[in-house]
């Protein structure tokens, strides 16, 4: 339940930009590689280690003596990596930073190959799996362009459950092409029944430039109507709540003790060092993001330079806005006391007009010393965020 | 004075007026071929792009005839479009002759007739010129018959030319010297100069283009404007040849540019008489009949902080375009702006585009409307420039709207379609004259309001561009007119009100509401868009509420990216006008403009 609060600790995000195939709705930095070539894997891990060394040298005063709190292997499909590679990276992290991380998450696809590796990942030090289940229905999986079948997904899920990880999360998608409410409810039912302690449930979003966005624009993609999509979200939230899951963020649901420590670092603006293609970092007032092209990322590293594409130094004002823009994502909201401690005055002192307006629209309310989204605010969170971006 | 020939070229659009001007400049050596820019006289970018002349320009040329006679030719260019009649008549007031240019293929068109009538009325010597005789399908004989039949001018001494190839240009120059009379005027009398154009020079202030009618103007004079009595020391007298050249005096009958360090654009009126303060004339020249703008629309800065910049830009533009009117107005929806009056729709478009281009302003433009006369029950009378000012129906005795007499030149095969269009627009046919087996002239009485909205486009598409039209204001007539208001979530948006005939109220109201619906983004709540007459709703559409608006994922790499997306959204919202709780983008106000201006 607890959120890491020490500014001295650090999270590490490792981006693995490889997938067997690219899903038609995905706009992350990934490349389709089929099976990951051993040589490519080895080379990528080497470069990640080199990036770590460069960051360590370059950002010595920001990184030195940090305690490592969380590690997150995301992608892409990190489970294309062998457990030995994961182990190697974790070992390198523990040589550079103090302590051993409380949470090491690995994103996993429920394919057969990866399922066989599950015990080895546990032995390598992974404490939490995030399984890209999406759906337990063959047709929906197929329409989503996923590589696995429902049966494989279930087998994968069971393998993860029996492997004895301290925590486990599954991704569910709703509002998928031709997906029905009943189908979604059946998926949720199964997840609850199997005792999965954490669920990330995402409304399918048409990201510009993806094949799905194009197909939709051309009328070739039938998505559930807007009303139905909203209804699906409601059904899902109600069912998970009844199943003992607390919605602690817009898309995140957890049973007691299973919140993602690493993800909460983003919404609480705690430091994260990102390694790998396109990985993003926040270190104090410094936000930066790596190059999104693997070849450019590699070229800089080989030249002995950090592969940063853009960096910004956040002002106090930026930090205040971010505190609300990101903090509102958590349903607990933003602690007034924390805000006052950090910025010297109540949120109203800086955002009086914005907050008054949001209250009058019924999007934001006060509860137990915290500012947070209302039920309606959860549906219209971007309207809230909008007030806290820009200058 | 005996050497001077002041003349204009008048023609229908595209009949080659500007090309002819270029050729005259070239042949007289005023402009070297190598430094020639196509259509030199069309100075404004906008004119070159649209291929039309908007502002009259003037240039002085020297010519020696074949008999060795020296002549000074002042060419005063004129616009060809119907909306710029006023400019034409002003230019003609500075001339003794006019070249009536007619295309050797297209023949006589509406503006040929309108301009020729203005020249005849001004007592000018007219030289008929048939241009483009180099074209393979040129038919000068037929064109001559058309000029005689339709314009009513003898073609006995017609000059056939090709401005493109230069053929006939020498004969034309000879004809100008021989047939345009030199100016008359009393060179010994006190100075009287007619201001027939003006513009704003960023360094010199107001520049006045004048025709010296009597007396002469020395470069060291103190001038007096007869209408106001204001006096100014002359800073510079010049002539355009074609660049501005300084001269020591402007003699009787000449055309000159006068600059006197005048900074306030509003203090100079085109049509005013200029005299010498040292020896003033007492009687002003007759000037021009003040035009009545018939088309009005609201002009608002997109960013309310640019109001003062808009005011300054309008004042300077008016100096150069005295037929544009402007008065400050306030809209509940749009804030502070101006209600501007124009001679016609094209004039409006040009003026607005010039403001945006030459003064880098972003504008919101409201739908054009005409001038309505309202008689109240109390006996009082009003002239309305904006529909939202129309009083409640109960207070009104009657509403009169302006009508025009339109003269439409059309190939006979399209007659039916044009008549149908006119009938749809509440037109009444005055007469129909068939001049030959292929040309006819239709005259229709039409409400001006019906012509304002998409009439030209419809006419063009109905006749594949072969029809031409000219009009004059006819009268005001009582009609069953109603005001259609637009309400967004119950709040009336004054800037969108329209006055329409009761019969077309429903159609126009619905079109308005549909256009708005398309442009108002969905909000967190339903937005009702209504058109109403008084309290009766005639059209209603709902902009459905968004059901949700939430970014599903926001992890490390998303934070900056999604923030930038939101920032762009926020910028977009800033440019919207908020009415009540509803955010309305500027395009919505523009969309109303295009209601009907596009083909339905």
Summarize the structure.
Chain A is an alpha/beta fold.
Characterise this structure.
The complex is a heterodimer of chains A (391) and B (600). Chain A contains 16 helices and 17 strands. In chain A, 47% of the residues are buried. With 391 residues, chain A is an alpha/beta fold. Chain A has two domains: 258 residues, TIM Barrel (Alpha-Beta Barrel), CATH 3.20.20.70; 56 residues, no CATH class. With 600 residues, chain B is α+β, with helices and mostly antiparallel strands. Chain B is built from 14 helices and 34 strands. Chain B has an eight-stranded antiparallel β-sheet with strand order 11-10-16-7-8-15-12-13, covered by helices on one side. Chain B has a six-stranded mixed β-sheet with strand order 2-3-1-4-5-6, with helices on both faces. In chain B, strands 22, 23, 24, 25, 26 and 27 form a six-stranded antiparallel β-sheet that branches. Chain B is globular and about 85 Å long. The C terminus of chain B is likely disordered.
The domain count of chain A comes to 2
Shape of chain B: globular
CATH class of the largest domain in chain A: Alpha Beta
Number of helices of chain B: 14
Name the average pLDDT of chain B: 86
Number of beta-strand segments of chain A:
17
State the low-pLDDT regions of chain B, or none.
Answer: 52-56, 596-600
Strand content of chain B: 25-35%
Task: Give the largest interface.
Answer: A-B, 44 and 22 residues
Distance linking N and C termini of chain B: 58 Å
Proportion in β-strands of chain A? 15-25%
Helix content of chain A: 40-55%
Mean pLDDT of chain A: 93
Q: How many extended strands of chain B?
A: 34
The rounded distance between the terminal residues' Cα atoms of chain A is: 34 Å
Structural class of chain B: alpha+beta
CATH second-level architecture of the largest domain in chain A: Alpha-Beta Barrel
Biggest sheet descriptor of chain A: 9 strands, mixed
């Amino acid at each position: 339940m607890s959120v890491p609060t020490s500014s001295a600790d650090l999270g590490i995000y490792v981006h693995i930009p490889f997938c067997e195939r690219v899903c038609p709705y995905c706009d992350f930095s990934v490349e389709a590689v089929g099976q990951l070539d051993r040589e490519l894997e080895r080379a990528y891990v080497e470069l990640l280690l080199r990036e770590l060394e460069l960051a360590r040298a370059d950002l010595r005063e920001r990184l030195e003596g940090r305690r490592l709190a969380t590690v997150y292997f995301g992608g892409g499909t990190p489970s294309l990596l062998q457990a030995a590679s994961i182990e190697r990276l974790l070992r390198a992290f523990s040589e550079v930073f103090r302590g051993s991380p409380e949470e090491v998450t690995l994103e996993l696809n429920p394919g057969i190959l990866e399922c066989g590796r599950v015990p080895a990942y546990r032995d390598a030090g992974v404490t939490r799996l995030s399984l890209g289940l999406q759906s337990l229905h063959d047709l929906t999986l197929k329409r989503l362009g996923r590589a696995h079948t429902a049966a494989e997904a279930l087998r994968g899920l069971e393998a993860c459950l029996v492997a004895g990880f301290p925590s486990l999360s599954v991704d569910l998608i709703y509002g998928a092409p031709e997906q029905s409410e009943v189908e979604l409810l059946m998926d949720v039912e199964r997840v609850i029944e199997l005792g999965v302690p954490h669920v990330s449930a995402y409304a399918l979003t048409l990201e510009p430039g993806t094949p799905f966005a194009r197909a939709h624009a051309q009328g070739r993609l039938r998505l559930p109507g807007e009303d139905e999509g909203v209804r699906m979200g409601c059904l899902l939230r109600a069912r998970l709540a009844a199943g003992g899951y607390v919605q602690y963020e817009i898309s995140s649901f957890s049973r007691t003790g299973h919140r993602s420590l690493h993800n909460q670092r983003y919404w609480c603006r705690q430091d994260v060092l990102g390694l790998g293609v396109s990985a993003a970092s926040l270190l104090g007032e410094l936000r930066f993001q790596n190059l999104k092209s693997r070849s450019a990322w590699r070229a800089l590293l080989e030249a002995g330079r950090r592969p940063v594409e853009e960096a910004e130094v956040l002002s106090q004002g930026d930090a205040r806005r971010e505190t609300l823009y990101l903090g509102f994502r958590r349903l607990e909201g933003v602690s007034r006391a924390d805000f006052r401690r950090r910025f010297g005055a109540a949120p109203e002192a800086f955002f009086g007009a914005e907050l008054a307006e949001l209250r009058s629209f019924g999007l934001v309310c006060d509860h137990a010393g915290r500012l947070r989204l209302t039920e309606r605010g959860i549906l219209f969170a971007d309207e809230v965020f909008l007030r806290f971006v820009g200058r | 004075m005996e050497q001077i020939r002041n003349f204009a070229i008048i023609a229908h659009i595209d009949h080659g007026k500007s090309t002819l001007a270029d050729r005259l400049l070239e042949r007289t050596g005023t402009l070297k071929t190598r430094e020639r820019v196509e259509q030199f006289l069309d100075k404004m970018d906008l004119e070159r792009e649209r291929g039309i002349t908007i502002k009259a320009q003037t240039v002085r040329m020297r010519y020696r005839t074949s008999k060795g006679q020296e002549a000074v030719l002042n060419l005063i260019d004129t616009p060809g479009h119907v909306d710029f009649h006023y400019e034409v008549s002003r230019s003609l007031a500075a001339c003794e002759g006019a070249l009536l240019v007619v295309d050797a293929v297209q023949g006589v068109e509406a503006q040929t007739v309108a301009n020729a009538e203005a020249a005849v009325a001004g007592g000018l010597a007219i030289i008929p010129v048939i241009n483009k005789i180099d074209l393979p399908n040129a038919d000068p004989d037929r064109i001559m018959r058309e000029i005689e039949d339709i314009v009513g001018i003898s073609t006995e001494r017609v000059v056939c030319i090709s401005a493109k190839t230069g053929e006939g240009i020498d004969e034309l120059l000879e004809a100008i010297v021989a047939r345009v009379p030199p100016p008359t005027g009393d060179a010994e009398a006190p100075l009287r100069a007619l201001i027939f154009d003006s513009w704003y020079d960023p360094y010199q202030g107001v520049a006045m283009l004048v025709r010296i009618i009597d007396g002469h103007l020395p470069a060291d004079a103190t001038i007096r404007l007869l209408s106001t009595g204001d006096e100014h020391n002359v800073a510079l007298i010049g002539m355009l040849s074609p660049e501005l050249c300084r001269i020591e005096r402007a003699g009787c009958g000449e055309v000159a540019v006068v600059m006197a360090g005048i900074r306030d654009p509003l203090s100079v009126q085109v049509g005013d008489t200029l005299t010498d303060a040292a020896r003033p004339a007492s009687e002003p020249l007759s000037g021009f009949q003040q035009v009545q703008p018939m088309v009005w629309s609201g002009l608002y800065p997109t960013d309310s902080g640019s109001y003062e910049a808009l005011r300054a830009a309008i004042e300077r533009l008016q100096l150069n375009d005295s037929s544009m009117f402007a008065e400050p107005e306030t809209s509940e929806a749009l804030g502070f702006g101006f209600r501007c009056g124009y001679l016609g729709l094209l004039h409006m478009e040009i003026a607005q585009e010039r403001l945006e281009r030459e003064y880098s302003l972003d504008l919101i433009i409201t739908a054009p409307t005409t001038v309505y006369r309202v008689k109240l029950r109390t006996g009082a009378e009003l002239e309305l420039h904006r529909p939202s000012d129309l009083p409640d129906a109960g207070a009104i005795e009657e509403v009169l709207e302006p009508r025009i007499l339109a003269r439409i030149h059309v190939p006979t095969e399209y007659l039916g379609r044009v008549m149908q269009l006119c009938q749809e627009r509440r037109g009444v046919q005055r007469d129909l004259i068939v001049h030959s087996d292929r040309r006819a002239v239709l005259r229709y009485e039409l409400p001006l309001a019906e012509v304002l909205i998409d009439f030209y486009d419809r006419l063009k598409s109905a006749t594949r561009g072969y029809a031409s039209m000219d009009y004059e204001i006819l009268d005001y007539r009582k009609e069953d007119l109603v005001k259609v208001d637009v309400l967004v979530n119950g709040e009336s948006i004054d800037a969108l009100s329209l006055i329409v005939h009761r019969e077309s109220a429903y159609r126009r109201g619905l079109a308005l509401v549909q256009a708005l619906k398309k442009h108002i983004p969905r909000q967190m709540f339903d937005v009702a868009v209504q058109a109403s007459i008084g309290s009766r709703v005639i059209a209603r559409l709902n902009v459905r509420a968004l059901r949700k608006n939430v970014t599903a994922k926001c992890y490390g790499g998303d934070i900056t990216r999604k923030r930038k997306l939101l920032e762009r959204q926020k910028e977009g919202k800033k440019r919207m006008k908020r009415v009540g709780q509803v955010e309305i983008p500027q395009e919505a106000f523009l969309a109303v403009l295009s209601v009907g201006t596009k083909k339905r």
